[in-house]
Amino acid sequence: MKTNNNDSVHSKPPMTEPLESQSDSKSRITRRAVLGVGLATATGAGATGYAATRYLRAESAPESQEHPESTDGDPDQQYHLTATIGELDVAPGETIETWLYNDQYPGPELRVEEGERVQITVENDLPEETSVHWHGMALKDANEMDGVPGVTQPPIEPSDEFVYEFDVAPTGTHWYHSHVGLQLDRGLLGPLIVEEADPHVEYDREHTIVLDEYLASEPEVTSEGMGMMGGFPGAPPYDGTLVNGKLPSEPDTLTVMEGERVRLRFLNAGSATTYRVAIAGHPMEITHADGPGVEPVEVDGFDIGMGERFDAIITANEPGTWEIQVHPLGEEAPAGRATLQYEETDDEEPRDELSGSQLLDYSDLRAVDSLDQYDGSPDYTIDLDLSSGGMMGGGDEDEWTINGQAYPDADPLRIEEGEHVQVQVTNHSPMRHPMHLHGHHFEVDGALQDTVTVPGHMGQRTLNFVADNPGDWFFHCHNLYHMETGMVRVFEYD
Ligand code: C2O
Ligand code: CU
């Protein structure tokens, strides 16, 4: 992809260069043997993912599914997802075999309306066990629908199925993905959109934009080295960046009409990459973060961590063909792109001049919903230190730890129903960690999110949530390779 060095209109430095200060992973050495983490291959019986094995050791998993009893009435929407091995065309002549929902990548967009109840039957045609997590869903009184094997349900065995059923909330851009081992990085993911009855912003049209890495080989835990600091368990080197399943050689085209306001739902479904996103020629109003609305804030670009969502509205007032640019931050993988195409314009080489260089900062986000319940002093506070086993006491060097413990050898965090919980997360490592809490949105810096990136080198975030949904809820880094190697705790309450 071309960089923006011929831009004569805008004098500020282009955002097209990734930040160098955040070197997530410069050199990488495959260290499969040392780590001993053989990913199950698709060769049949007994092939069980590493994480699945670990999660199964956790206690108190329910034995079998009690069929959902639709206590809140019949579902308004029913879906069927089949997890299978399939083929993915990422560019002309470039096809890989991977794992898919309903033979599609991204998986089918599940679209429901505010207040509805949804039933989703997940059928497992994979050679190993699986499960589906509904990332962003509150799952009020439905912890058993959360999709974490060994914690909230037994895994779905090959040839078996599981019926998920829950009330959809909160509204906004969410997603679903496998929660077993490294399956997410094979392509088992899709958007889950909960339409607002009465959006706080107006728009004429919308598009969903799913960002992900392109990995032509099977996922496996490797070592991301940082020179003197030794290695950290991490992702394999990626082969590119997919935007709606397409490499930049044949990008997805998003159509707009002059004069429209267009809502773009961005979802970082990547397993190990933070992306910097900008749309040439168009400033964006950020209107939603992880689903819920925020007061619109105008930016020229934003960084989006693994698992995070940002909705942006653009005003289509620059007829032409423009690039939507997606740069992996601190990674060597090539950038990705999609094309913003005005209907009135003939196809032409997309223009790449950015609208400016103002980047979104978390502190710019102001929730539209009331934050009153997070006022006052917390009932329960906890400091969580993110680190690798190799850096601080506790854990082995092939593990990522929270307060020195690597899941599943980690103490649960016991809280009580009704408590205002405050979590201060401090990142002792040089890498970013996008921390995700299941079953709750938390207040962070004035916004309501379910995933927040904690910057490296002693970066801190303070999260507040209300324990209003009893159950066992995963809290983990959404870098899949960090989760897989231990960066997980479970909040427990009944
Ligand atoms: Cu999107 Cu536990 O994850
Ligand atoms: Cu992490």
From TrEMBL:
Gene3D superfamilies: Cupredoxins - blue copper proteins
Organism expressing this protein natively: Saliphagus infecundisoli
InterPro entries: Cu-oxidase-like_N (IPR011707), Cu-oxidase_2nd (IPR001117), Cu-oxidase_C (IPR011706), Cu-oxidase_fam (IPR045087), Cu_oxidase_CS (IPR033138), Cu_oxidase_Cu_BS (IPR002355), Cupredoxin (IPR008972), CuRO_3_CopA (IPR034279)
A single MF term (Gene Ontology): oxidoreductase activity
Residues annotated as domain Plastocyanin-like: 93-197, 209-344, 395-492
Segments for region (Disordered): 1-28, 58-78
PANTHER family, sorted: FI03373P-RELATED, MULTI-COPPER OXIDASE
Xref: PROSITE patterns: MULTICOPPER_OXIDASE1, MULTICOPPER_OXIDASE2, TAT
Record bears the keyword Oxidoreductase: yes
SUPFAM superfamilies, per database record: Cupredoxins
Protein name (database record): Multicopper oxidase family protein
Keywords: Copper, Metal-binding, Oxidoreductase
